[in-house]
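User: I'm putting together notes for a lab meeting next week and I want to include a structural view of one of the chains we've been expressing. I don't have a solved structure, so I'd like a prediction I can at least talk through. The sequence is below, exactly as it appears in our construct file.
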Amino acid sequence: MFFQGIGASGFAMGAITVAPPPETGGIRLRYAAIMQGLRDAIDARIRATLDGDNRAIATALLTGRRDAITTPVNDAMFISGLGHVLSISGYHMAVVAGVVFFAVRALLALVPGLAVGFPIKKWSAGAALVAAAFYLLLSGAEVATQRSFFMTAVVLIAVMVDRRAITFRTLAVAALIVLAVAPESLVHPSFQMSFAATLGLVALVQIGMPNLFASPDHSATARIAMWGGREIAMLFFASLIAGLATTPYAAFHFHRVTPYGVLANLGAMPVVSALVMPAGLLGLLAAPFGLDSPFWWLMGIGIDWMIAVTRWVAALPGAVGSLPAFGIAPLIAASLGIIVMGLLRTPLRWSGALVLLVAIVWGLSVRQPDILIAGDGQSVAVRGRDGHLHLIRASKDGFLLKEWLAADADRRDAGSSALADGVSCDEAGCVTPLADGRLVALALRVDALADDCNRAALVVTARPAPPDCAAMVVDRQRLAAQGALALTRRGDGFAVQAVKAGGTDRPWSPATAGEADFGASLAPQAAVPRNRDATPSEVDLHAED
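Assistant: Thanks for the context. Below is the predicted structure for the 545-residue chain, given as structure tokens.
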């Protein structure tokens, strides 16, 4: 939001009142209104033929709006490995450009004079580029779609200037364009997963395909190719390699893997490519003439098949692959292994597999934090003797708990009462034991601090802690300076990993006064004699003053 210039966000409750548009608002506002009206019109045309998830998915594929897909179908899509279909990215852009390219070229080839005397291939590439640009604008031009358009545009321009289209240089040029336009996209999962998958596919085209089909004149190979074996094999290898290349980034950002992703893609993607997307494009072309209903109906048939495959794969044993969070270092090592395997041409490229194996072992061996503390000091998760997180919370932040559980590879529901097992609470605060028996306390009121400082090993509070507290303390001052914290036991103390590490000073996250006073560890301190003339309330008020 910072890089997009958005300073706030929110939502509205109640009925929506349609107001007349302003008479003056600039070109940008008029453009946004026109594109939004076009998306609404397309959704209305689809709604006249389809309903439910069919209508929602069809709208998502054409306009990028995914808010109407029901939660069960949305979850099944991501569990099965078909979640990428819902996000307009390189696949969708390639299908749109490819369908337009081949359709225009086929129509032009019907005229012998054009086919012989004019560069219809270049004309088709130009038409495909225009179609891709329109699709970019129609879908909202999000960062992932922009990246896909740039890569597609580079390929089509290469065709128009008689250069080889699918090369590693094409990939590099597209990456440079994306980073020049939006440098912050480098750390986004969509950028990382898209370019990793494309790197694997380009390597497959340039390295794997010649070896896979080295003897096309062989009678057995020719018979297999005649019956579609080559296409099936390429679809299998493309799904396998793209899935493997994106696995480290999906595991890092979303803490999950899709064991049956290849199976789901093999079952659904041919139908999506051959029926769903072409029918959608034909529906867009036929909509101005009122002839679009048959195409939405065809699109719905393909979506029905995709949803059936999705639910079947998601219901298979072991379909939900959860992985605990790991640091950035294993991800960098995995990226290095993928790059070495994709770019090198000599047998040395197989050293990348060794680097990738080291990264996998490294990521799986990372120790998980023993304590998680929210940035507002209202929620704390403590790892107990059973190895699971036990939650202490004074707020009902369901999203935070879901993220904590996902990062811990814990499949329990965020609303389950079992998450609070072993936690003792009253109006003043809560306590729960660590695996070694020491207590962690969340002090909600000032009058709880005195008791918690004497009993607990660690006290978390959103208030200023008294200076004579004998326990290790995470209070309002530390949370304001460092944000949310993850603590890992180290001897009698804790190693601290903060959202805002020491020395961090960014325009969107400026350094705060006193930040340097907090280190990367928490250690027990000797008990300090309490000032008997000051009550806990007076200490708190004095600190706030």
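A couple of points you could mention at the meeting. The first strand starts at residue 256 and ends at 257. The CA atoms of residues 485 and 498 lie 5 Å apart.

User: Perfect, that's what I needed.
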